Structure formats: C-alpha cells, structure tokens
Amino acid sequence: MTAAVEQAGRAARTRGMARFADSERLLWPALLAPAIIYIVLLVGFPFLLSIFYSLSSATVATSDIHFVGLENFTRIIHSDTFWRSLWNTIVLTVVSQIFVLVFAGILATALIKDFRGKWLVRLLILLPWVAPISLGSIGWLWIFDSIYSIINWTAQAIGLFGEDFWPIWLGQPNLAMAAIIVVQIWRILPLATVIVLAGLSSIPQDIHDAADVDGAGFWRHQFEITLPLVMPITLVAVLFGIIFTFTDMIVVFVLTRGGPYDTTQVIASWAYFTGIQGGDLAGGAAISLFLFPVLVAVAILFLIAARRSEVT
Amino acid sequence: MATVEARQLVKAFEEVRAVDGIDLVAREGEFLVLLGPSGCGKTTLMRMIAGLEQPTEGDIVIDGRAVTDLPPRVRNVAMVFQSYALYPHLTVERNISFPLRAVGMPKEEIRKKVDWAADMFGIRRFLNRKPRQLSGGERQRVALARAVVREPAVFLLDEPLSNLDAKLRNSARDELKSFQRNLGTTTIYVTHDQAEAMGLGDRIAVLNHGRVAQIGTPQDIYLRPSDTFVATFIGSPPMNLIEDGDTWFGFRPEALVPVAQVPEGAVRMPLRVKRVEYLGAEQLIYGTVEGRGGDAAAIARIPANLDIGVGAGEVCDFALNRDDVQRFDRKSGRRLVEATS
Q: Of A230, A257, B310, B338, whose CB has the highest number of CB atoms within 10 Å?
C-alpha cells in the first residue's frame, strides 16, 4: 500500500518536471531569471543607488543623508576640473579611436593573408587584451618612467634624442595626455583587430575575385568593396572602443593620477578621486552620471548607423 | 573577340595536380564548354585564365599575347561566378557600372552602356534595387549584364545556371546561347551538367583528373568518345560497355532496339530483362546480355509506345547496327578506331 503511494508520488513528480519543461509559460521566465537577477543586482541597483546619492548629501563620514536636489550637479558644472576632465575624456576617446580604427584596419588586412607563423602574430596581438589592464598599465608606467624610460634611453642611444633632450613623459601635460592615449590604443587595438578580422573573413572570396576581374585596383577595391562591407561590424568595434575608453579610469589612475594638476583628469578618474578618495559620495555619483547620457546617445547612434549600413 | 590558349598548363596544390598539363584553344567567337566531374580541375583552369590563380607551369595566351604574369584587371576578361558575386552594398546600377568606373570611363558614356546592358537583359526596372531585393534569376541577369557591359575580349562563366531552378535553367540556357551568338564574344563555360554542355557548347572539352580527355563538338563527344571515361560520363544512361576479349564492346542505350527494327546483318544482342522503367516518352530496359558470360549488364532505351511484350526474367531479342558499335582497349580505355564487331 505505502509502496504504491510512493510510486504514484514519484510518477507525479516526474510528470510535474516534464510538464514544467514542456510549458513555455513556465520555462522561459525560469531560464531568463538568472540573467535578469544578475543585471538587476549588479547593474540596476548600483545605477539607482548612484542616482540616489547624486541627489543627496551623502559622504563617507556620516550616515545623515538628506535630499539636496540638483545642488551636486550645479556644483560640478561650475568646477573648472569638470570641464577639463570632460574635454580630456573626449579628446582621449576620439583620438585613440581614430588610431585604433586605422591600425586595426591595417593589422586585420595583414592578418587575413596566409603566412607562416600567423597564429603566433595573432596570439601576440591578442595578448594586451587578455592581460589585466592594471598590469599592462604598470608596465607602461615603467616605460614612461622619468629616469628609467626605455623610450628615452633607446632614443638617445641611437641618436634620436640629443644630449640634453630628456622628455618627462608623465610630468608634462601634453606628453602625459599623449602617453595615456598611447596606452588606450594599445589596450583597445586587439579587440578592434579581431572584430575587423571577423568582418573581413565574412566577405566571400568571390566578391574579391569579381572586383579583381572587374578591373578594380588596390585603392578602389579597398574603398568601394572591402570598406563598405566591413563597415557594420567595424562600427560595433568602434562602439566598444568608445565605451571602454570613455569609462576607463585605470590607465589614468596608474599612470598619472590625473596629474600634473588635473591636466590629464578624465570623468571616470575624477569621479573616483572625488567620491572614493575624497569621500564626497554625492559628488562622485553626480560626476559619474555625466557619463551615462553620453554613452546612451553614442550607443543608439551607432546601432542605427550599423543597421543602416547592413547589407545582407 | 579573341582566342584563348592554354599551353602546357599545370597547377599543383601541394601534392595534388589539379590541372595536369592542359593544352587547349578557344577559337574566336567560340562557345567552349569545360565539362567534367567535380574535382577534375575545370574551375581551376578557368580561374587561371581569369588570372585569379597563378599557374605552376605553362602559359595563358589571350589574343596572341601571353598574359600569364598579368593581373586579372588587365586581361580584359569578364567572369560570371556561380554565386554571381554581386556587390551586396551597391545598387544594380552601381554593380553594372563598376567595371566601367574602374577604367575611368566618362559618366555620360557609363550611363549609355549601363542602359544598353540593362535593356539587353530586361533588368532596367531593377536598376535602383540592391541585390538582396532580387530573385535568383534576376541576380543572374545582373551578373551577366555586369560581365557584358564593358565588352570584354572573353567571357568566363562558372556554372552560372546551377543556382536556378530547373524550369528557369532551361529558359536561361536558351537566352544565354542567343546573347553569346549576338555578341559573338569568345566564351568559356564551366559546368558539370552534360545536358547544359551539349545544349550550349560549340565544342566541349571533357576534363578528367586535370587533363583533357577529349575535345570536340557535342556530336563527336557523344558518338565517338575517345575513351571509356568519356563514354560513360556522357549520356544518361551512359554507354553500355560489355567485355569482349581484350576490348570493351560499347554501344549507346538507344542503339539497342528490338530485332525487328534493324535491317539484316545487325549484331544480335539477346537481353534477359531484369526491370523495365517507364519514363513517359520512353522506357529503359535493364538487363544482361545473354551468352556473353559474366556480368554483361546493358540498358536499352526505346520509345514508350513500343511494346516489347516481355516481362522481368524473360529473354527479348535485341540487336544493334554495326555502325553504332564502338570498341575500346581493355587496358588503356582508349577507343580503337577500326570499330567493327
């Protein structure tokens, strides 16, 4: 009697599982739930929290928080450092992405060809991407060091720099900005190259052959055939590059801490210095929120552009 | 118009010789078909003529000029690819005008040429569309228009009909032939479809293992195959080959007819019928030739309204004309010229 009941119970349970797996109404929320919970907890909650902080008087020193309206934002807008950081962020992003695009195009065009040791070159190009940014940046910190800079020593040894020419890479505002741009290019280039490479290899060989037979020379081939066909996927690479560069604070933090005198400060690093190191949580939150509308606009713009130039 | 010549052409991919010493001439204005099973080197041969593939040995000569080391764009050839290879991001008009823009032709002239080519293929109303908005047949016409527009010395067509459905393929074949006749441009056409080859070609070059097995008119190829490969590759069903001492005894299925249909002095071929296949207009009789020993399988093709009056397992008296008999050497497979039984 009990055995029969147990068996019936077991059968019902298996039936229950089967019914669950077969039911689209139950299954899809269950399968989507982990992703949604993840996004809500790790993206949504901090985002809402920073909106809340930016409208409050929160600091690390006190738990007494009250609503202050847009006061934090007006304070930031009237700060010279904000405009300096915003300008730096834009310059850094635009300049580095232009270089990344050109270099990624050249590298991908070279890497699509077959040659001995291609896998090794591909691996080496990908390395900066898999290495942690902070480690890479520390490496660059030594390269740009004021005394041991390998660039200066090498350049002097081969006679490129004169006896008393010794640039302090991270100590002079323009050089420091250039150094940061170089590191950002180095960091973003691998991903962009791989994406453009994928775009290039998705073009059927027949199309290239047809262009050759149809009489296209190298430049016409590049600009009228190859470039338009990799454009949609290249826009995705640029979108990633812009977002990674725009929101990155590690490179600036490791190389210059925003110095000298905030001349290399970017929005993300300034938000960190204000909010975490300076203890002004409300101010830091408000600064970081300035990134948000810009990035949303950029993302929408690029997705529209990518769809427009989609061809097949 | 031009002649195209391949001289001792070899293309080796590592160990494999895809093209293994081909000598071939396409005459002026000729429609030459390269026919062969897949992997016979026909596409490689065509790509070498286009300049898309560099030969390992030998020369390509177009209109008396060796072009072996020249890039595709200066060879003045136009190619239609199996996939059509239309530029997906360009409109039909920009696709067709691409070769003209590449040579820097003035805009006014380009307009005229594009209109001329578009009219010829009836695609004028599609000029502003993108390739993805066209059907397969329309795309094929755009590809042809793009090839025709700059009036090249040679057309190279790589299975341009294989992506069309059967009905469209027949009408497209017909059109293709008449365009080629009107333009009079030397054309080399690659296919593995023998019906296409027979219907289109002024001459057919049958390729096998990177070599030319036979080159000749469709009649030559069909009636006087140079070896057993050509004999069995061409024709559907293929030529019957029956062992006869040191030779193969070969005849086409339609040559085998009931004995009452042939005059005196014919070769008797009693056939033990295995199966009769009814195909509408005709019927195929599968069987084995009696008194030949071994497995002397043969197929007869006779009109469907001709009742042979025998079923499976019975023997029916068939015969064939002496003129229809071919003999091939058992060892080399080559046809023996004195073909009498």
A: A230
B179 touching A, CB under 8 A? no
Confidence (pTM): 0.78
The answer to whether B87 faces chain A, any CB pair under 8 Å, is yes
Q: What whole-number distance in Å separates Cα of residue B46 and Cα of residue B63?
A: 16
**Interface residue B160 vs chain A (CB under 8 A):** no
| Extents of the domains making up chain A | 1-54, 72-308
Contact B154, B4 (CB under 8 A): yes
CA dihedral sign, ordered B213, B214, B218, B223 = negative
Which pLDDT does position A27 carry in this prediction?
86
- Indicate the CATH number of A72-308 among 1.10.3720.10, 2.40.440.10, 3.40.50.1700, 1.20.140.10: 1.10.3720.10
The mean-pLDDT minimum among A144-148, B28-32, B205-209 falls in A144-148
Task: Tell me the nearest-neighbour CA distance from A214 into chain B, angstroms.
Answer: 5
Tell me the pLDDT tens digit for each residue of B51-61.
Answer: 999 999 999 99
A-chain residues within 8 Å CB-CB of B132?
Answer: 311-312
Measured between CA atoms, the residue of chain B closest to residue A215 is B73
Structural tokens at position A115: 């040659």
- pLDDT reading at A11 higher than 70: no
